[in-house]
Amino acid sequence: MIKALIVDDELHAREALEDELLALGGVEVVGQCNNAIDALKTINQSRPDVVFLDIQMPRVTGLELLAMLDPDTMPKVVFVTAYDEYAVQAFEENAFDYLLKPVETERLKKSLEKLTRELSQKHDYQVITPTLDLLPCAGHNRITLIPHQEVEVARTALSGVALLTAKGESTTHLSLKVLEDKTPLIRCHRQYLVHPAAIREIQLLDNGLAEVVTTSAYVVPVSRRYLKPLKDKLGLCH
Predict the structure, then answer these.
(1) For 110, which of 1, 62, 167, 194 is 20 to 30 Å away at the CA?
(2) Whole-number Å distance between alpha carbons of 20 and 207
(3) pLDDT attached to residue 89
(4) Would you place residue 32 in the very low, low, confident or very high pLDDT band (cuts 50, 70, 90)?
(5) Cβ–Cβ contacts within 10 Å for residue 77, how many?
(6) For residues 111 and 80, is the Cβ–Cβ distance under 8 A?
(7) Quick check: 51 and 5 in contact, CB under 8 A?
């Protein structure tokens, strides 16, 4: 059974696609999302095999969502859109397939058959990792996009990952792994990343430990495992 997530800002489009998938069989629809931020959270929680993803959505597009996914754990992505001019870019961004609205039953069936073969073979794709310039953060009835240059520290939190800037703290559903792979933030601890440009000083402690102090006076732990790689990346003498 293929676990599928449907992401589209149009309710009618989501429901129509779910009806088609269920009619063809072999698919469990684990959820529907009407925006990319909710989709990111659902993908991290539900781990679907495939995401049927609209491209044109408010604030954060389907292509931008694709760039936010962890390359090591990302599901297959099938773009579903009314605009064929995005096809080339979609495949350049490692989309699994591309369907035009209104989705034809036979075309959807072929996509599912291809997907079934791929999943049964557990074929691993070499994924080209794009960079993230804007990091989406969820707030009360709003979504803010923070430039990665403003983030001094990223750390794990109960509700996701906390991004610390000179203006305060925001929460994103992006994982530390995605931030490490797709932004200049570097690992200094299992639960922390720090922006090299924000490091004001490194304080060496006992037992091979250290602390980073940022320009906004955030104090960040540095574990023994990451101290040498951190110093290497900063070009510091040993």
Answers:
(1) 62
(2) 60
(3) 61
(4) very high
(5) 24
(6) no
(7) yes
Q: Which of 23, 38, 98 is CA-nearest to residue 5?
A: 38
pLDDT > 50? residue 123:
no
**The two three-digit tokens of residue 234, written as one number:** 């900063």
Please name the residue that has the structure tokens 């990952």: 161
For residue 32, list its beta bridge partners: 6
Q: What is the share, in percent, of the chain residues with pLDDT greater than 70?
A: 89
Q: Could you give the angle at the alpha carbon of 119 between the alpha carbons of 118 and 121, nearest 5°?
A: 65
- Please answer whether residues 202 and 211 qualify as being in contact, where contact means their C-beta atoms are separated by less than 8 angstroms: yes
Per the CB < 8 A criterion, the answer to whether 211 and 174 are in contact is no
End-to-end CA distance of the chain: 53
- Digit-coded pLDDT (tens) for 151-197: 999 999 988 899 999 999 999 988 899 899 889 999 999 999 999 99
Residue with tokens 């990091």: 135
Q: What is d(CA 103, CA 82) in angstroms, rounded to the nearest whole number?
A: 9
* Distances from the Cα of 226 to the Cα of 32, 105, 208, angstroms: 39, 52, 10
